[in-house]
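Worked example

This section walks through a single chain of length 287. The input is the sequence exactly as stored; nothing has been trimmed or padded.
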Amino acid sequence: MRKIILILVAVVALLAFKSDKNAYMIFDAKGKECHYAKMLELAREADVVLFGEQHDNPIDHWLEQELTKDLFEAKKENLILGAEMFEADDQVVVDEYLSGSLTEKTFKDECKLWTNFPSDYKPLLDFAKKNKLKFVATNVPRRYANMVYTRGLEKLDSIEPEARRWIAPLPIAYDKTLKCYADIFAAAKGHGGENLPKSQAIKDATMAYFIIKNLSAGQTFVHYNGSYHSDNHTAIEWYLKQARPDLKVVTIGSTEQDSVDELTKENAGLGDFVLVTPASMSKTYRP
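Given that input, the structure is written out below as tokens.
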């Protein structure tokens, strides 16, 4: 009788668990559920952590902050932060804000900030400020990405030498067979030709360039970017490995599904870890 009661209790507990509404789940590259502690463990050992987010997902932003705090406990001053959301030509403004030279108002007036900066990226920047960490503005200035879209990569040869400081060294390698760029081309049905995926590639190449430029031995660089900039170990990671094959890179992909209980086949392999949230999750902003 006691055994039967224990079995019934276990069944009820299992059913109760299945009825829970999980806010997120983490899976490994093969689709096996794993714990945050495992992700943190591998991130601590990495040279570069590419945290791929859904820009308007609050869980993604929360976990970015939690991972950053936990990595700081392990790495201290050997932790570097950087983000797609800040353009390279704003680095001086970012540095002045971190040093306390600028008021928050002046910083907001001078820096090209995303709509969701106050809720999603200011906490990361302020964490760097509080703990005296370097925060790198890694993205190419949008005017140059637009230039590539309208006139091709070759047009970058005509910009002033001073302006080239904010772009990965020319010429930029480009492999149209990489999934990230082939998918963009296919989704656009040829609209914009190869210049559309190339305008994405100049962002990826520049972000990789500034990550490597600011990384020293023994340090861990955590980079926040849209998941499509690091999904399937392409894009930023491809450029990182072209320049530094020795780098240990850990990628965290993110996606949304109707159900988070299992990772769908199409989302398997997005990264070393895949963060899954419900498709019904509230959004932090609408672009």
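What to look for: Confidence is low (pLDDT under 50) at residues 3-17.
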